[in-house]
Amino acid sequence: MARDWSELHELATDLFSWPTDAAGWEPYRLSKDQIDTFHEQGFLAGVKILNDEQIEALKSELAEFFEADHEGQELWYEYHTNESTIPETVLFHALGAWRLRPAFHDVLWAPGFVMAASQLLGGSVRFWHDQLFCKPAKHGGVVAWHQDYSYWTRTKPIAHLTCWIGLDDATNENGCVQYIPGSHKWDLLPITGLAGNMEAIREVLNDEQWEQFQHPVAAELKTGEATFHHALTVHGSFENRIDRPRRAVVVNAFRDGVVSDKNEELLTGVPPIAQGQKMEGQFFPLLFDPSSIGST
């Protein structure tokens, strides 16, 4: 049995340096303009999270996950070598990498992530789950338009955010994330599929929403940069048709205090948390408490 890194709720390696005082956290703070942009548009792009050493460590571990017999595969919440519904394209999608390898475990505690998440959520940050989204060169599949919270209604209230971190440069040409500005102010939409038809969402939009859809914003990123988005922000990404991959690690978090809204398991293999009970414990660790360093 492989080691389950979810049992450790602190940094496992020296890849990341955890600041020890308020001054040490200052370089990681978002500006007021960045925070305002997030709340006005529903997303914020271009936040630097990873350095070259951290990127290479994550890429090395990621390469192991593509092997059919990799160690720890029993620990995944979900593992899809290809979730695309279009046979000629590939979308590698998996949940639970933080349990399998130390670098993917430690990225949850990346100072640039936890500080930004705390500022955008307005409080302490608790982990929800991670994801890997990888599009190979030349035939990478789409991630269809969706709102993340439509898949997360088993928790409440809506106090969640997503951090999408590029392990490659992400551009229009290789399928970067696209956003519909202001869509985080819409109501929750029905699920129309995650990895197939980019046009399916039209069926659940009113005319005003469809008009906004004509002006998506591409979140082009350099390797190691991230985009943060609200749990209701509509987003998706198109195919990768160029000769280099588009790989990303996604960290989903919520403000401490979110509770379970069902009595069944919330993630595959994770013991249930009773409806109405706080999300916490081994699989939902507290990542950052801003009160420990002063006001954000």
TrEMBL record:
Organism per entry: Blastopirellula marina
Cofactor: Fe(2+)
Keyword check for Oxidoreductase: yes
Recorded superkingdom: Bacteria
InterPro entries hit by this protein: Phytyl_CoA_dOase-like
GO molecular function: 2-oxoglutarate-dependent dioxygenase activity; iron ion binding
Keywords: Dioxygenase, Oxidoreductase
Alphabetized Gene3D superfamilies for the sequence: q2cbj1_9rhob like domain (2.60.120.620)
Name this polypeptide is given: Phytanoyl-CoA dioxygenase family protein
A matching Pfam family: PhyH
Keyword check for Ligase: no
